[in-house]
Structure formats: C-alpha cells, structure tokens
Specification:
Helix content is 81%, strand content 0%. By secondary structure, it is mainly α. Helix 1 packs antiparallel against helix 4.
Length: 117
C-alpha cells in the first residue's frame, strides 16, 4: 500500500491566496489579490514540479519558500510603505504567512532528511 504524502506546499499556496482574499476584504483594494495570487500561482507550479520530479525542484522550492519567509517576516517586523498605520489585521496576515512559510521550510528540510533527496 502506498503511503499518502502530505502535500504541504499546496496548503501553503492556498493559504497565501486566502490571505490575499482577506486583504482584499479588509481594504477593498485589488492589489492583495494580485500579489498574493501571483505568489500562490508560482508556488503551485513549483510544487507541482517538485512533487512530479522531486530531485532538482526540491532546491528551487526551498529557495522560493525561504524568500517568501524573509519577505513576510520583513513586512511583519518593519511594515510596508502601503500601510503607514498598520493595524492588528496587517500584523496577523503578514505574520501568519511568515509562520506558515517557516513551518513549510522546516517540513521540507525534514522531508529531505527522511528521503535523502
């Protein structure tokens, strides 16, 4: 029987898109949808390639998620020029995406150790 593997990268992409929708609902601006939707789309494509042929694309997806982690962490800690007066919702959205991407990095590193990619 085949072991069902957790495809956390798809959950991460979906969560990024969900936070884009939350940003749209909070601000009525379409920019969160465009930015987060683009990031979610790229993450989904990289994830599909990784799950299909995991040897080479592992490093690409690891770098991509790491860059997302750095970006969301920066936005949480230092703010964004588009949000001169950040609210609790701003910190929750960016901070939760930073935490999710950090957990995804840990999961990818753990998966590499177990599977010897």
């Amino acid at each position: 029987m085949h072991e069902k593997k957790l495809k956390l990268l798809y959950y991460f992409a979906g969560y990024v898109m969900l936070m884009g929708i939350a940003g749209y609902l909070r601000t009525s601006a379409t920019m969160p949808l465009y930015l987060n939707g683009s990031i979610a789309l790229v993450t989904t494509v990289f994830s599909f390639l990784y799950y299909a042929k995991n040897s080479f694309y592992y490093y690409i997806i690891l770098v991509w998620v790491s860059l997302n982690f750095l970006m969301y962490s920066y936005m949480t800690l230092f703010g964004v020029s588009a949000h001169p007066n950040p609210t609790v919702g701003t910190y929750l959205i960016f901070g939760s995406m930073a935490i999710f991407s950090g957990l995804t990095i840990v999961y990818l590193l753990k998966e590499k150790r177990e599977r010897k990619i």
